[in-house]
């Protein structure tokens, strides 16, 4: 889901640093752990938090699965005359939200409005 937040904490630690693999997933701020995902990335990424303290170094991984953004496409095979009706359809996207807009203030949030 967009804008999810996870927190890493460590006790008896002097610092925590963060890294991400693969690097194609995006850019992570190594000191605060804020991740900026690459818009074209999909797949599995591993974010690692590494803590350094008086007894050595330890790390913890979080595996994140990023699903690709659905692609919207509008197609038609013939002209539409003024006053004629059209059918709008969209592929089902689990958890997806749909928004259709058109002339004269038309709008719908149905997947396949009539």
Overview of this protein structure:
The chain contains no helices and seven strands. It has strands spanning 15-21, 26-28, 35-37, 43-53, 56-66, 100-101, 107-108. The protein has a domain at 15-66. It is rod-shaped.
Structural class: mainly beta
Could you tell me the radius of gyration in angstroms?
A: 23 Å
For the largest sheet, list the strands in their spatial order.
1-4-5
What are the segments in which pLDDT stays under 50 over at least 5 consecutive residues?
A: none
Determine the N-to-C terminus distance: 29 Å
Number of helices: 0
| Residue share in helix | under 10%
Summarize the structure.
This protein is mainly beta and 114 residues long.
Record the SSE blueprint.
Blueprint lengths: L14 E7 L4 E3 L6 E3 L5 E11 L2 E11 L33 E2 L5 E2 L6
List keywords for this structure.
three-stranded antiparallel sheet, mainly beta, 0% helix, single chain
């Amino acid at each position: 889901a967009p804008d999810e937040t996870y927190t890493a904490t460590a006790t008896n630690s002097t610092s925590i640093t963060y890294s991400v693999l693969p690097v194609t997933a995006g850019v992570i701020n190594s000191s605060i752990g804020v991740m900026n995902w690459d818009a074209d990335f999909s797949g599995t990424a591993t974010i690692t938090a590494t803590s350094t303290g008086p007894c050595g170094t330890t790390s913890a991984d979080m595996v994140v699965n990023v699903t690709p953004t659905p692609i919207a496409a509008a197609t038609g095979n013939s002209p539409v005359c003024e006053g004629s009706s059209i059918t709008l359809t969209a592929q089902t996207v689990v958890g997806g939200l749909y928004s259709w807009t058109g002339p004269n203030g038309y709008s719908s949030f149905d997947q396949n409005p009539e």
